[in-house]
Amino acid sequence: MRSRGSNNRLSSSRSLFQWRIASLILSMFATMAAFFVACRLWQEAESRVYLVKELDRRTGQGESAISVDDTLRIIDCREQQKKLSVLQMELNKAKKEGYVSKHLIETKDTNEKKKKLLAVVGILTGFGRRHNRDAIRKAWMPTGTTLKKLEDEKGIIIRFVIGRSSNHGDNSDKDIINENKKLNDFLILNDHVETPEEQPKKTKLFFVDALQHWDAEFYVKVNDDIYLNIDALGAILASHVNKPRAYIGCMKSGGVFSKPSDRWYEPEWWKFGDGKSYFRHASGEIFAISQALVQFISINKSILRTYAHDDVSAGSWFIGLDVKHVDEGKFCCSSWSSGAICAAS
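Structure tokens predicted for Hexosyltransferase:
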């Protein structure tokens, strides 16, 4: 009995010992496997770092790699370049097929070569004023080839300015068309209807149309009852070319007429204050404004207010602007001042 019990205890001790040995061996293998995996991961990480550095070294980027935003900008620029290339190809194709006007292609080069004019002189006239126009042509306005010579040599354009008849295409319109065919010295305002009360709007449209037709330093408005020394006008304007926003004329101010029976009645007299006095402005017989001011008028033509008289209207457009008001005594046509370049008939 004792011998059998002893054998059982010995067998149990051996089994426990063998289990502990097996567990220890398994633990050793697991530890070795863990070390092996860790070493492999470390080697792979070092390989990746080496490859990145080598790639940077060979591409020359180093550590200054571009950001994601920069990459997107580059991609966008490349796309825009592709679009521009396609458009250029389409434009070249259109030119070959004749869809682009030769005139448009050559306009830029022509404008660059063409010398800027000194002045465009607009003589505001009306229907039934042929006698005045003929008197001006005989007195101081060249005609025919002499008119073209004045443009080429002195850079001065002169045109009679007139609108259309309220009965479009009637005899009044036809007379002007025939006169212009013969003498070619009109600027016809197709969007303006000739009426005495619309003279301020006509003056505004003259500046707008003249700017579209000619590139000049100055634009001059003259009445068709004024006799003018055109050479003296050119000399005065040339002396003010360096003033970018010049408003040149016989400057004046005076009382505002509030009675309808007055010749110079101003329907909106109440806008000029209790003193009923006009602000400083150039006489309407003749005044000149530089191109920058004409551009301002052209851009804002739809919102620029006109009053009963064109000289007051023009003066009102420049209030609040950085404008050089030049009080030129030689533009005072009605005062017969000494040295005046003009005279009213």
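The longest helix spans residues 2-59.
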